Amino acid sequence: MTVGKMEVSITDALRGDIPVFAEISRVTHIFETISHFIFSDWHDKDVMLRHFTTILTQRFENPDTRVLKATDLRTNQILGFICWTLEHEDQLRPNQGHPVAAPTREKHQQSAGINTKFTEAMGRTVEALKKKHMTGTKHYYLSTFAVTPSHQRKGIGSQMIRHCLDMADKDGIQTWLISFPGSHDLYTRFCFDDIEYSDVDLDEWDQSSFRGFGIYRTYVMLRPIRGEP
């Protein structure tokens, strides 16, 4: 497909693409407000790369997740990626009886440089919203999405989202996502509706630094099956 003056392809990604995806995630998050709270030192490149590599590896390990990439056909540069998961009716039911794994040395290494109390609190918020709204229905879930900053606002991200939504429309399945503030307006352009939101007061996590970050809002958004009201 043509995006601006570029010929861009959207294809299935490979596990070998993870380092590139982790770097794209790092550079797109480095100036996000939330990064000041997730990372003890958000300037630490290695910590951020390790964090995003762990997340992306989990995406590839999920057999119901497709990871797609947008590539410039002229330069072969990966410009962005998106993670698209088909979740079934019973996947989000609570209390499924899975034991909680004991902490391992590897997990401790992965959490080095991460504000675990904050990330766990945010994680619980997201999981609670997912369980409340996404349990009991087969749906697609857009979990991770990023475009390298030098190629943002050129229509590449929109093409990736549209590619995934075409699959949802073909299958007759609704799509859910959890949106953070910076992406909210983009998703509304693709007919995602706000279902609920959850606010976190970042000033309470700011260790009395008085930087005035204020409220950070997380949105649950739904795109109905095409043709539904």
General description of the model:
The protein is of the alpha+beta class and 229 residues long. 35% of the residues lie in helices and 26% in strands. It is built from seven helices and eight strands. An eight-stranded mixed β-sheet has the order 1-2-3-4-5-6-8-7, with helices on both faces. Strand 3 and strand 4 form a beta hairpin. Helix 1 crosses helix 3 (45-61). The longest helix is centred in the middle third of the chain and has 19 residues, at 116-134. The two termini are 30 Å apart.
Q: What value does the Rg take, in angstroms?
A: 18 Å
Q: How helical, in percent, are the residues?
A: 25-40%
Mean pLDDT: 84
Strand content: 25-35%
**N-to-C order of helices and strands:** EEHHHEEHHEHEHEE
Please work out how many helical segments DSSP would assign: 7
Write the layout of secondary structure elements.
Blueprint (H helix, E strand, L loop, with lengths): L1 E2 L2 E7 L5 H12 L5 H4 L6 H17 L3 E8 L5 E10 L17 H7 L4 H19 L4 E9 L8 H16 L3 E5 L4 H5 L4 E9 L13 E9 L6
Parallel strand pairs: 5-6
Antiparallel strand pairs: 1-2, 2-3, 3-4, 4-5, 6-8, 7-8
Helix pairs in contact: 1-3
Produce a short descriptive summary.
With 229 residues, the protein is of the alpha+beta class. It contains 7 helices and 8 strands; from the N terminus they run ββαααββααβαβαββ.
Based on the model shown, name its key terms.
single chain, 229 residues, alpha+beta, eight-stranded mixed beta sheet, 35% helix, 26% strand, globular
